Amino acid sequence: MSGGILMCPLELPKFTKSYWRKERSNKTYPPLTENLTTDVCIIGAGIAGVTAAYVLANEGVTVHVIEGSKIVSGTTGFTTAKITAQHGVIYDELIQTFGKNEASQYFDANQKAREQIKKWIDSLSIDCDFEERHAVLYAQTPQGVEQLHTEKAAYDQLGILGELSTSKEELPFPVSETLTIPDQAQFHPVKYINGLVKEAQKLGVTFYEDTRAKSLREDDDEVFIETMEGHIIKAKQALVTSHFPFNDKEGFYFSRLSPQRSYAVCVRVPSEQMTGMYINVEKPSRSIRTAKGDKGESYVIVGGEGHKTGQHDDDSHDESTVQRYETLTQFAKQHFQVESIDTHWSAQDYETLDRLPYIGEMSSSSSHVFLATGFSKWGMTNGTTAGLLLADLAQNKFNPCKDLYSPTRSKIKKEDAKHFVKINANVAKELVTGKFDRPTDSVDDLKNDEGRIVMVDNHKTGAYKDKNGQLHLVKPTCTHLGCDVHWNDGERTWDCPCHGSRFSYKGEVLEGPAVKPLERK
Ligand code: FES
Predict the structure, then answer these.
(1) Higher pLDDT, 130 or 500
(2) How distant is the alpha carbon of residue 379 from its chain centre?
């Protein structure tokens, strides 16, 4: 670890890098180079896929895992890594939408996930900086306090141990009231997943990196997965844990998932600042936790500034990605004794219409293909729940949460229906307005390290001029369903405002649902 030693320690480092990904072991896995046959093929090696792989292998199932990029290179490697059943303000809403039993099941499933993570860390001796911490919601306005009280009433109905407090908390800024769930946890997600991968390998699981799935076909009792390189995996079951389902043909997940980006900065501080993990109820959102470096250094991670991918709507800002990092950095500097800014990064999450993940059969006509998606920024427990449930479903075992998480669940309340309409109206707007926008700039207007939509030979073109002045030109039409992509100045990527596909400045796919790169010019 760098220990946060930077040339200009109080300025943002030039390139984004997740604090957790700095620690990634150098171990790499070869890509798939031949056809193969297996019991279960898992597509996507984040927390859900790796958890399912470990559980299945433990039960004697033959498992092969393919990952389009590197293990833990998706959202699991870019989270704030809180292991908690306190998912913001949620339980009152779940009671209203689903009822008391289902809300209680959700809490229990997340608590069970937390306990399972802890059990594996202990029994498999995974060294991943696991620390038990209280999870704390805080409010700074009368409206926020009201929300906390409503949520506490929901806790009481469900028997959740939670405590309201108006006493001065350890946060270095004024807080009106807090709501705490005790005995939750935080950890280092990449160390944890690497540990679980190692154990899964010992049980016979084979992992392939840089192996992206292109298509999937179910035929009687078999599933055929084709990779971008043309290799075929024949499996009895397929688990799609690729974040956004790459094979979304029948489930129409793109119309039921909202892609969200959020940001984090990690700052070095002189000593440990807090013993809890915090998140506010108001906007703009602020998620705060501590982390410990390998040499005992103390860090604070501040997350927030979320918005829909490729757009600027949720937190009422119209800011570039760089400005969002600056805002979080200013927040950290204002409230903590910042010695240096270690790193900063962003993550992509998918939110469902009703806040519960979709975990289960891909569609009503799929009996051998299962998926997990829509963890709504709480991927450590939701992802573990998904892995455990998928492993049961793949073995046709009973799991009490099957109906709760079923992607074909039917309970939907008026607000969710409105949300559905809003998501899709927004997509329709992007599809139309994007086509009529005519940029006036040309490539000559670009400075080094700048990207923009410009006109080239009378065609709209996505242009990025790199630090050496070299131009990289792409057709700015998303290869999923054709929306126009937007430039992301903080990550140097092209982001699609419709369903969240993201592409490098060279056009390579970074996040689905798109599977084909942008056309290069
Ligand atoms: Fe669907 Fe781009 S992600 S159109």
Answers:
(1) 130
(2) 6
Ligand 1 touching residue 496 (CB < 6 A) = yes
Cβ–Cβ < 8 Å for 311, 326: no
Q: How confident is the model at residue 288 (pLDDT cuts 50, 70, 90)?
A: very high
Residue 317 Ramachandran class (φ > 0 left, ψ -120 to 50 alpha, else beta): beta
For residues 160 and 182, give the distance between their C-alpha atoms in angstroms, rounded to a whole number.
10
- pTM value is 0.89
Position with higher pLDDT, 144 vs 455: 144
pLDDT at 315: 46
Average pLDDT, the chain: 89
Ligand 1 near 513 CB (within 6 A): yes
Other CB atoms within a 10 A radius of the CB of residue 429 amount to 13
How many CB atoms are located within 10 Å of the residue 163 CB? 13
Tokens encoding 325: 């990092």
Task: Evaluate: CB of 480 within 6 angstroms of ligand 1.
Answer: yes
pLDDT, position 379: 94
Ligand 1 atom having least distance to the Cα of 497: 2
259 vs 264, residue with greater confidence: 264
Single-letter amino acid code for the residue at 335: H
Determine the distance separating the centroid of ligand 1 and the alpha carbon of 196, expressed in angstroms.
33
Residue among 483, 493, 495 to mutate when testing ligand 1 (max atoms within 8 A of CB) = 483
Q: What's the pLDDT tens digit per position in 1-14? A: 333 334 445 676 66
- C-alpha–C-alpha distance, residues 393 and 238, integer Å: 11
What distance in Å separates the CA atoms of residue 177 and residue 413, rounded to the nearest whole number? 30
Distances (CA, A) of 443 to 93, 274, 492, 505: 49, 49, 16, 15
Cα(388)–Cα(196) distance, integer angstroms: 14
Bigger pLDDT: 432 vs 115: 115
Say what the pLDDT of residue 444 is: 85
pLDDT at residue 259 in the model = 87
Of 256, 493, 498, the residue with max ligand 1 atoms within 8 A of its CB, to mutate for a pocket test, comes to: 498
Which atom of ligand 1 is nearest the CA belonging to 481?
Answer: 4
* Centroid of ligand 1 to alpha carbon of 431 (angstroms): 9
Indicate if the pLDDT at residue 140 is higher than 50.
yes
Q: Which atom of ligand 1 is nearest to the CA of 500?
A: 3
Verify whether ligand 1 is closer than 6 Å to residue 486 (CB atom).
Answer: no
Q: Are 129 and 187 in contact (CB under 8 A)?
A: yes
Higher per-residue confidence, 317 vs 39: 39
pLDDT at 418: 60
Contact (Cβ atoms closer than 8 angstroms) between residue 75 and residue 379: yes
Distance CA 169, CA 480 (A): 47
Nearest CA to ligand 1 atom 4: 481
